[in-house]
Amino acid sequence: MMRTAIMLSVLVALFCGSASAGQNSAGFSPYVDAKGNISFPTDFRSTWVHLGTWVATSKPQAGMGAEQAAPVPGFHDVYTQTSSLRIYKKSGTWPDGSVIVMEVRALAWDDLATGHVMMEGDPLQWFMMVKDNKGRFPGNPIWGNGWGWAMFKPAAAAPNTVKDFKQDCFGCHEPASNDFIYRQGYPVLN
Ligand code: HEC
User: Which of 26-30, 94-98, 140-144 is predicted with the least confidence, judged by mean pLDDT?
Assistant: First the structure.
């Protein structure tokens, strides 16, 4: 009787364990379905590590983006899974299934005892890259050069807006020489 109860709880734990890891049929990432569609990880802020923050205050004065009509000011807060960071620190490469999320938030201001301070306003959008070391989705235009590429707007269950990563993302990420990541902005990686 006792033994059956233990067996049962082990089975339940195993089942729940795999369900909460969110494995799909490809067993690759909880945020990627079998066709390569990418979904948004809502839990990253409280459970992942913060790699660093960029503060874009105006449009670039020169170089890429300088030709844009409107500047895109905001905080760019970047996160990854704790387990991915641990492996990256040892090997210098992102393990399969690593996710890097960049949350863009409006710049807000206040006058406090510490000064005229800038603080984080509403979320504006999220950029996301999912590491794929196996080239799983050949011919799928949101996958390539070792990553899946996604962008989400703040609406409930908003889909990935990337149609073709080469047009939507890669032009700006090709110059980033550390596996297309702007590593210089993340003190914990350097
Ligand atoms: C106009 C150029 C530009 C475009 C287009 C662009 N990015 Fe970026 N991205 C950057 C720069 C520069 C950074 C780092 C500096 C910053 O965020 O201010 C960055 C940072 C990121 C980061 C944080 C990790 C890193 O590389 O440092 C992610 C994730 C990201 N971008 C994903 C995307 C995705 C997905 C797309 C396509 C939807 C995209 N980006 C389109 C220029 C761009």
Answer: 26-30
Nearest CA to ligand 1 atom 22: 102
* pLDDT-based confidence at residue 3 (cuts at 50, 70, 90): low
Minimum CA distance residue for ligand 1 atom 41: 169
- Residue 184 pLDDT level (bands cut at 50, 70, 90): very high
Distance in angstroms (rounded) separating the CA atoms of residues 165 and 141: 6
Torsion from C-alpha of 65, 66, 70, 74, nearest 10 degrees: 60
The tokens describing 28, both together, are 């690759």
Distances (CA, A) of 163 to 59, 64, 138, 152: 25, 21, 15, 12
Q: 70 is written with which tokens? A: 């409107």
